Inverse folding.
């Protein structure tokens, strides 16, 4: 959540930062009005409290000296009633302010480029060589059906569209990729966790999925539980409402989970194949760190995911997202896009984001340093989206006869 005190202290600067993220001017005006009203009411309440305290001291003196306390008693009673009314007003205004603020995105970093859409993202670096073919490379769904790896029809029969089933080598390769990614991340200093695949509303609010993105979540009927859209939710909130000893930081966490998303608003996009599914596997990285260390950790996480792709022999590029393509909780994001020869384009396979204190404020994740509680910085990143990695291997390692080679580093996992 954004810092409401910062909003009250310097509205123009914070409003300009949020406008870069596409926040509507009317919402900002509403935030400003409610914030100012809450601040004024709170000041009035504090003034009344000071008057009441002053008269209460006088009351003791009047009683001791045998003076008439009736007028004083009446004034104290009136001030008490007035204070109660102001407290109620402040509570209502601050609850309204918090409710609106929960739907306001994070401030973008100053070095994030301005832009309205993904078309204005900036390619920072291209790593690895694209494979060359003496034939027209096929897309992964054709390769999957030819090799008997993917069964889209049975996936739909079991659930609905945007679900699929894998068989044989594909199922084994999916499992091999999960194990390889977890091992790779552990060697880079990430501690492996196994977490629930469901989360309650408080947990999802902590990382920013609720209340704004409820339509994209699968809700469990009659339960305060949702299927998780990413392990970021579970890993980050392991430390919600906790104060972490500073010598424990940074906390570097990794986990495999299936992820579940309704993909609201994506109708017509990537309807074929594995790119955009309601259920998919992902290995996630999460870091919780001191504020001054988060940029260094961010670079390490980007390097970890990039090196993982390199180890699999997959050409990819690092892309800095512009303000218009930046996620709700992110202050800064670098996407990794892998080359898919069948589609003849780079496609996103990982997003690494620094949310700074945005999620920590919502989830109350703090650390103690010099006897002071400080909001942590939280970071998250895919390492990697497993299904998309499978797609990339199928398309990059395809042979002219339609068969698919297995990358050397995965053979022992097969």
């Amino acid at each position: 959540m954004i810092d409401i005190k910062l909003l009250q202290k310097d509205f123009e600067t914070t409003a300009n930062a949020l406008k870069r993220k596409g926040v509507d001017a009317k919402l900002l005006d509403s935030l400003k009005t409610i914030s100012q009203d809450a601040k004024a009411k709170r000041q009035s309440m504090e003034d009344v409290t000071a008057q009441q305290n002053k008269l209460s001291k006088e009351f003791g003196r009047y009683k001791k000296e045998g003076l008439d306390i009736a007028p004083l008693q009446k004034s104290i009673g009136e001030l008490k009633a007035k204070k109660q009314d102001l407290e109620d007003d402040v509570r209502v205004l601050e609850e309204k302010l918090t409710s609106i603020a929960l739907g306001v995105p994070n401030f973008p970093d100053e070095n994030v480029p301005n832009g309205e859409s993904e078309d204005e993202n900036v390619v920072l670096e291209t790593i690895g060589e694209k494979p060359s073919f003496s034939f027209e490379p096929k897309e992964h769904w054709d390769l999957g059906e030819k090799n008997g790896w993917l069964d889209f029809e049975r996936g739909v029969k079991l659930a609905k569209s945007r679900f699929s089933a894998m068989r044989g080598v594909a199922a084994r390769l999916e499992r091999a990729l999960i194990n390889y990614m977890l091992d790779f991340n552990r060697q880079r200093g990430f501690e492996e966790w196994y977490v629930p695949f469901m989360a309650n509303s408080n947990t999802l609010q902590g990382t920013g999925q609720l209340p704004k993105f409820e339509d994209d979540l699968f809700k469990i009927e009659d339960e305060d539980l949702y299927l998780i859209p990413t392990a970021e939710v579970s890993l980050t909130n392991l430390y919600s409402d906790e104060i972490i000893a500073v010598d424990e930081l940074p906390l570097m966490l990794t986990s495999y989970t299936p992820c579940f998303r309704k993909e609201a608003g994506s109708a017509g996009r990537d309807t074929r194949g594995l790119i955009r599914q309601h259920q998919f596997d992902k290995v996630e990285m999460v870091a919780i760190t001191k504020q001054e260390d988060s940029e260094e950790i961010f670079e390490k996480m980007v390097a970890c995911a990039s090196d993982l792709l390199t180890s699999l022999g997959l050409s990819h590029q690092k892309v800095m997202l512009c303000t218009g393509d930046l996620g709700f909780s992110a202050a800064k994001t670098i996407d990794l896009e892998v080359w898919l020869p069948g589609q003849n384009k780079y496609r996103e396979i990982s997003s690494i984001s620094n949310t700074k204190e945005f999620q920590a404020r919502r989830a109350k994740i703090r650390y103690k340093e010099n006897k002071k509680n400080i909001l942590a910085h939280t970071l998250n990143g895919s390492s990697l989206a497993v299904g998309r990695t499978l797609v990339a291997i199928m398309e990059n390692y395809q042979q002219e006869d339609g068969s698919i080679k297995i990358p050397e580093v995965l053979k022992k996992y097969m």
Q: What stands out?
A: The chain is about 40% helix and 20% strand.
